[in-house]
């Protein structure tokens, strides 16, 4: 059973990422879905997505305005650059559906990303830097502990 990658910010040590490098490529949909008769509950998955990457963005939360369902959920994210997006989460993955919180532009037609990491990596250099720094800090800590 695989462990969930998490990041924590502590005053003593700075940001800490708790995962193995090989886990970074694993899909959160495979590891942490609520299986309801073969259907993943996207509302629960959306919460897990937010918890995984909140440390590397300015703001991220599941939309309380748009209708979330068993097969679809909406996530609002503000990148470190100050750009706001509304994301749609389905079995197909994540995609940008709007350029403001709680906004869905049906004509946008953006590409799906298998993971939130891939999507944020394409949108935000600040996310990429924060994630990379957190990983480096974790690896340094492991090295110092002789692991």
From TrEMBL:
<feature type="domain" description="GSKIP">
    <location>
        <begin position="43"/>
        <end position="142"/>
    </location>
</feature>
<feature type="compositionally biased region" description="Acidic residues">
    <location>
        <begin position="10"/>
        <end position="21"/>
    </location>
</feature>
<comment type="similarity">
    <text>Belongs to the GSKIP family.</text>
</comment>
<dbReference type="GO" id="GO:0019207">
    <property type="term" value="F:kinase regulator activity"/>
</dbReference>
<protein>
    <recommendedName>
        <fullName>GSKIP domain-containing protein</fullName>
    </recommendedName>
</protein>
<dbReference type="InterPro" id="IPR023231">
    <property type="entry name" value="GSKIP_dom_sf"/>
</dbReference>
<feature type="region of interest" description="Disordered">
    <location>
        <begin position="1"/>
        <end position="23"/>
    </location>
</feature>
<dbReference type="GO" id="GO:0060828">
    <property type="term" value="P:regulation of canonical Wnt signaling pathway"/>
</dbReference>
<dbReference type="GO" id="GO:0005737">
    <property type="term" value="C:cytoplasm"/>
</dbReference>
<dbReference type="InterPro" id="IPR007967">
    <property type="entry name" value="GSKIP_dom"/>
</dbReference>
<dbReference type="InterPro" id="IPR037395">
    <property type="entry name" value="GSKIP"/>
</dbReference>
<dbReference type="GO" id="GO:0051018">
    <property type="term" value="F:protein kinase A binding"/>
</dbReference>
<dbReference type="Pfam" id="PF05303">
    <property type="entry name" value="GSKIP_dom"/>
</dbReference>
